[in-house]
Amino acid sequence: MFRKILIANRGEIALRIIRACREMGIRTVAVYSKSDRDSLHVRYADEDVCIGPEASSDSYLRIPSIISAAEITDADAIHPGYGFLAENAHFAEVCKSCNIAFIGPSPRVIRLMGDKSKAKKTMRKAGVPIIPGSEGPVKDKDEALAIAEKIGYPVIVKASGGGGGRGMRVAHTNVRLVNALMMAQTEAEASFGNPEVYLEKYIEQPRHVEFQMLGDKHKQVFQIGERDCTIQRRYQKLIEESPSPAVNDKLRRKMGEAAIKGARSVGYENAGTMEFLLDKDDKFYFMEMNTRLQVEHPVTEMVTGIDIVKEQIRIAAGEKLSFKQDAIRFEGVAIECRINAEDPEKNFMPSPGTITAFNLPGGPGVRIDTHVYQGFSISPYYDSMIAKLIVHAQTRKECIMRMQHALDEFVIEGVKTTIPLHQKVFQSEEFMRAKLYTDFVESVLEK
User: Fold this and answer.
1) What is the mean pLDDT of the chain?
2) What's the DSSP call for residue 128?
3) Which residues are designated catalytic?
4) Is 193 helix (H, G, I), strand (E, B) or coil?
5) For residue 442, what pLDDT is reported?
């Protein structure tokens, strides 16, 4: 087992990893930028190293600085968390070349699954259902128009090397497709340094259902349940729940088997997520595989009792998974709200500033993952998520009621947050009846 782990990340996920390490008797190293000097992850780590100024390009994305911090503190492993360098194959290779364990999958798998068109080819070969579309990157507008003619409109253009909603455009006509192609290529080049895009049939009003995967170095690959991530804004998840209210036992078994088949086909190790789109006819299609820990991992932990971060660390250290597939038990329902420092009434404009009041909700089945506190200054340099509110109960109805009470108790002043939006969602009849789709948030805002 590792003696000391450096966390190459910040905020709530860095603090989450530190807590898991403490329980395992592993010492931790926090890295931080100048603007994060007062963050809780720095305060609670055993050691800390400043790696640069505020901008992430000069700090959390600077591989030499992070490797240097690991070497001077004698860390024998690095946990990348999510975001930043978590899905950077080059970073994983550098760690390996420096004899520092990378707590994640191999560079080969990160690179393969990070290229969306190659990932689709791999899953198609493994027998996992794929959304109809181009077999690889689209070369030009003529090829795009020919593919759209074959599969039918609407279609969606996606960046081959991207995610998070960037480099994605929907088109319903030939003219719109040509424009979408140019805009997506430009955005993909700016966001990911790769202008390649591919084309897919656009599934209207789908549900987004993902399966949490864990694989070890002993060729064991398990799925530990699904999460429904349908409530999104501009392809960014806002609310997640497990199990999905749209998936029955038969469909769950079928999707779970496909997820395992896909993960095994690439020799997957560590934590990852197989993501699917589910249409109105209960047909599901592989969308992508995230080769890292997910923001929404707590809902799976709440319904299974499995500590995913600890499993990640054990797997990277060469240990076997601590459970078997048929021994996993799912209990109750868990829902997570991502609390962002944004103003929903002003097109989700970021709201940096100092938190002047901070009151956390409590009670049975309530969990808060956050790195902020009263007096903490939210920086404009990073992602706007400042907390995750997770609740667990025996039934979905009880879970929704518990979340409503928790949101009412959650007080954050000094900055605007998405709490009022979450309250509107949980008061809607459609959410209560689980009649959801990926543009659901837009319909809530219009009311």
Assistant:
1) 95
2) -
3) 292
4) coil
5) 76
How far CA 434 is from CA of 169, 225, 307, 400, in Å, comes to 27, 18, 28, 11
With bands split at pLDDT 50, 70 and 90, how would you rate the model's confidence at 192?
confident
**CA atoms of 255 and 155, how far apart (whole Å):** 24
Confidence of residue 163 (pLDDT cuts 50, 70, 90): low
Q: Is the pTM of this model over 0.85?
A: yes
- Which residue, 212, 312, 305, 206, is CA-closest to 255? 212
* Domains of the chain, start order: 4-103 (3.40.50.20), 132-201 (3.30.1490.20), 207-446 (3.30.470.20)
Q: Which long-range contacts (CB under 8 A, 24 or more apart) does 315-318 make?
A: 315/214, 315/215, 315/216, 315/217, 315/269, 315/270, 315/271, 316/2, 316/77, 316/101, 316/102, 316/103, 316/104, 316/270, 317/1, 317/2, 317/77, 317/101, 318/217
Contact 26, 4 (CB under 8 A): yes
What gap in Å lies between CA 260 and CA 221, rounded to an integer?
Answer: 7
Vertex 228, ends 288 and 87: CA angle to 5°?
A: 35
Residue 211 CA to residue 203 CA, distance in Å, equals: 19
Where does residue 267 rank: exposed (0-12), middle (13-18), buried (19+ CB within 10 A)?
middle
